Predict the structure.
Amino acid sequence: MSHSSDVTHDLLPARMLNEFVYCPRLFYYEHVEGVFLHNADTKKGASEHRRVDGGKGELPKSKKAGGSTDKADSDSNVADASEGEPAPVQDQASPTAPDLASEVIHARSVMLGSETLGVVAKLDLIEVTVEGDTGTSPGGVRSVCPVEYKTGAPREGESGNSLWDPDRMQLGLQILLLRENGYSCSEGVVYYRQTRQRVRFELTPDDEDWIRRSIVSARICAGGPIPPPLDHSPKCPRCSLSPVCMPDETHFLHQMAPDDELPAAELQLALPGLGDGALALDDSRVAQLADSFSTDDAVWEQLPEPRLPRPAIEGEVRRLVAPDVDTKVLYVNTPGVSVTKKGETVVVKEKGEAISEFRIKDLHHVAIFGSAQISTALIQTLCEAEIPVSYFSMGGWFYGLTRGHGLTNVFTRIKQFARAAEPQHSLILARLFIYGKIRNQRTLLMRNHVEPPPLALRALKYAQSAALSAPSHATLLGIEGAAALVYFRNFHGMIKAGHDDDEIPGLEDDESERQLGTQALFRFDFKTRSRRPPRDPVNALLSLAYSLLSRDCTVAALAVGFDPYIGLYHRPRHGRPALALDVMEEFRPLISDSAVLSAINTRMLGPSDFVQAGDAVNLTPLGRRRFFQAYEKRMSDTITHPLFDYKVSYRRAIELQFRLLARTLTGEIERYLPFTTR
Ligand code: SF4
């Protein structure tokens, strides 16, 4: 038995045993992986608990411990004490009335541990019945009764209200801990706030046996692999970790019939133009390969025809993931402004004058472009609130981001590093990232091209199959490059806006008409992808869109517990979030390219939103602001998830994709499935 705080780090917190009884997987996430998320229920519980958390943590010594029973005695057998004023002896919310035959005092926030049990707990409230010295018997603590406060309602049992199992575990443990610490305690009380009812609980030998066995089971569980999710349990919708756990999604993908899966991509084809597979990124070889994709060479017939699994049928996968966040990204895009904190708001100032204010709770991200200043006080607050801050150059180069401690889970990273160290294993995933990207590029062309070009569509179909068969990273790189060449050669057909509203693609004006004074009038006549620098408005938009998407993928990778800089397809390079770029491949056409096309085709952006600087074309500050709107709108657009058949925003879809990747690495699901629209 121990009361001192120096042993508590080896002891299981009692509340973790509640979680274990609720769901062993929840226990594993919180206790082993250190993952914790609030939902509405836990937030409510936490705020209601603040009232009872205010005690000093003092408890009069027990008779067995041999000390005085002075209720003001502060030299008590307490492991820890929280700050705050002593609680009133009786208040309206208190579940008991004072016993007139003896004096009842209350102790709050009392920490007790037991090495025998291997458990430590903080007890909300203990009712202590004290009797004075009668002359014939010494006074002292006669008995104690722990009282727990719960947000919900009691369980309706056959013979009246009773405790839910997690509550029974918690209160039972408290009774055992009090006994271990020398107090006489036979029962406890749970006060359910929703119905304002108290339920008394008497610890039986069977309960005690169940509690002791559960402690052993929880310790065994903590030392093993993560338990599987519950199967369509009614507990999951109320569980704060359901967006992390994804119970139905994991079951669905785990039970997928083998012939619903993508084919095993183990074909080692002699791909035209690839030779031994060690393709260097030589433009002419990439072009040669791109051309060969559209031929009828018989070799292509051997490529696998991928078949995606069927989507979930109604009810098979419940939507436990929130459809979208209703908070916004704050883009700070004006050179020289300062961004500071005032109370619970972010204030943007220009030349000392406040030009805009935003409530911190309305934001989920702050993006700083160029030389804007952000105060340390604000960064600290944003870190605490888990709101990341990303930094870009004025031209849109993504430097990096600042964030809070976030999840402490290291297991995903351990698996990630192990997989990244095995090129043949990481190749299996890399093929799927690129397969997804090419497939989505093809879908975008089919949906948006003014006259979808059959040869290009066929070439992309070959390319996506070839990606699944790539025998090496280098070959895959070549296939990706060749597919990109085919795609961007036809990208202009998706742009349906010139400088004239009536302009028809292919019937644009002469070059001579493009001069307006000394400033060239920009047009959206995209020819080829140019990156550094972007040489035309479409390339400027694409570069910015990819930069924003890589930022969002980096944030999602971190939220799931990955190291975004260790890639499975992209090689590590200083300052490159390689894993974020891996998963981003699938989303490039769907989010970035679509946002660019939408901004141009809806005339959200016009020629006056761009400026020429040397070889480079950049957006004006106003143009950038308009594009941020187009990009954020795309991220918030909801789609039906291709596998799970529920609505999610693209922002959520990215996070889900990282979670599926994590599941694949930990072996919970067998195969990663790229995100593709149908
Ligand atoms: S969502 Fe369900 S399976 Fe997952 S941790 Fe919560 S209760 Fe357990």
Notes: Residues 23, 25-26, 229-230, 233, 235-236, 239, 241-242, 245, 247 surround iron/sulfur cluster (CB under 6 Å).
